[in-house]
Fold each of these.
Amino acid sequence: MLTPVGSSETLTEAIAGQLIQLVMNGRYRSGERLPSEFELAKKFKAGRGAVREALKALSIVGLVCVKRGKGTFVSGRESFLTRPLSMGVKAVTGLHRLIEARKLIEVELAGLAAERASADKVQSMEALLIRMQESTKPEQSAEFLEADMDFHFSIAAAADNFILSQFITLIRNLMHEWISESLSLPGVAEEALEHHRRIFAAIRSHKAVMARKAMERHVTVMGDRLLLAEETKLDQTQKKDSA
């Protein structure tokens, strides 16, 4: 049950904090509609304005999403905090910082996967690699993207490090945008597939040093492709504006 908020913090902060706890504790699940502003205000013994501001704050960090005419709904756990992170990457740190982050996280995950991957985890990776091989045509970009993403997360699972896996989950949406943008360039799918083959071969052979090197090269090269895709998009926009 919701409890009345105290006076040691602002009403907005207290309401937001309690709602976060309720979501994390499973009281409200992903996709579930929250009570209306009126109902929440009554349960919190607070004004609707404070409730509205709390919901706005939670919407910014991606914990809830507001659907006009339908209400406020709990977002998926993978979305929590990825929205402000995405805004920060685009507005402050830039794509170069995202590339740095992926190198730090995924290179180590690849090495750990090579050291720890069980037979069933290796088999799952191989199945995803086959899906990528079968989806390299331009009209199959959606299928390739899905298999590519799943391949990287299968490496995280094989690495058996919960904390590092949480970091890669945090940038999942950014990775999705990255890979999607990169695949818009000719030949990138085939190039990425070859990189994944080398990463997989190293992990299957339990060669950690080789796995780390293969992943580092993949992230570096694909990062260059991403920057090129963004520059191409910017040039096209500028040409349209000047036309």
Note: The chain is about 70% helix and 5% strand.
Amino acid sequence: MPTRNKILIVEDDTDTLEMLSTYFQAQGYDIITAFMGEDALKVCEESPPDLIIQDIRLPDIDGYEVCRRLRRNLRTSQIPVIFLTEMKDRSDRIAGLKLGAVDYVTKPFDMQELRLRVRNALRRAGYESLVSPVTGLPDTKVIDERLKSLLGRKGWAVLCISLANIEAFNDVYGFVAGDDALRAVGLIINNVINEAGSPDDFVGHISKSEFLLLTVPDKVETLRERIIDRLTRAIHYFYPIKDREQVEAGARRERPKDAPVPALAVEIGIVSGAVTPFTSVREIKQAARAARVTVVP
């Protein structure tokens, strides 16, 4: 069953908000709503939508500022934004487009036209993205295609590499620091493949904290050991300088709210087509995740 696209509607006029929500829900979209710009930013940081429809005139910060702050955050920088507003001046339209808005619809508007603009914006953005916006590595769709090609074959192995406790890390240091850590892990895996992998090895970013590395059986242990070695030496650099000493020492520094320094860990699991006859992509993923053990505490 295809995934429903999620749209965030930011509008302080309750009648317009209800009309848009009802209409787009009927079109098969999952709808989230926000009355204020700050609320919209919070929603996007916690669970980025596939597209935003937003008014420019909001009670707290205006839509331009919302868009500006979305573009500064790597996690939200690629979300398509459609401005929906009564402001019709050419300068207003240009201001929105300069900030990266994909479209600009003035009130009153035609619902059918807006629906088509939404559909086209989602298509242009590639809502079934082929690459992760955080790491630039192939995303779920590409990974699933590669895993599907392994079914019925024996000469392959898969490593599932996870950066555990990333949510707690984000809570303390913010999503930008967390995304930097994930990007570093992706780069390290790629470098190891380039140095010691086979020509057809493949790595993808399958979920927020998980990577899948596809290789051949005679390379899997070498790759695993090198990844462990590199991440063991690198993981403390994911932390701000002020906390690195405590992380390296394995200590826990008490923070103002009694929250300890979040302990990132690396988990790796391995599955092989030579051991188990997998019949679906889902089975391969589940087996790889179930096989994970902590290798960098």
Note: Strands lie at 6-10, 30-34, 51-54, 81-85, 103-106, 157-164, 202-205, 210-215, 265-272, 293-296.
Amino acid sequence: MERYGNLTALARADEHELTELPGVGAATAAAVKSALSLAAQLSVEVLPEAPLLDNPQSIADLLREEMRVQSVETLYVVLLNVRRRLIKAIKISQGTLDALLVHPREVFRAAIIYNAAALAVAHNHNSGNSSPSEADIRVTRDLIRAGQLLRIEVVDHVILGSRTLENPKDYASLRELGYFYS
């Protein structure tokens, strides 16, 4: 903790980086990473029933801790039943520091396998700026069109970043920003 300062920074470190610390071997590094992964899972398991995810705040709340430790852009699909309750959140793609490659095929494959009625996608911007890029808008529109063909509603695309004085929310919702068709 002296080197990293907080658990988020520690969770972002990879096992190789941890083994460079004095007294930390491969087994200890693996144990630390496993413990942090289990802690993240535990935070999801304490929910008494599947959470209702009918707004961008609830989607951001579900994924915030998982996204916070990602060192590169990472896309999740949040699968929902007909009542907008969580079926499963699945990591679909990892990109680079500032870019992410996603295709509707991967997003909807998971939705079909889990028999989802709807889905939301979410990804992080490591820069902290949650404003959507042109690529984010383009991908969202492609997903909406694919979902219409498959009759699986895309309810939102949430981008997680950081809170700032100008933006008190640490996320942006493309639905709230008007990028979804009525």
Note: Strands lie at 74-80, 86-94, 118-124, 153-160, 171-173.
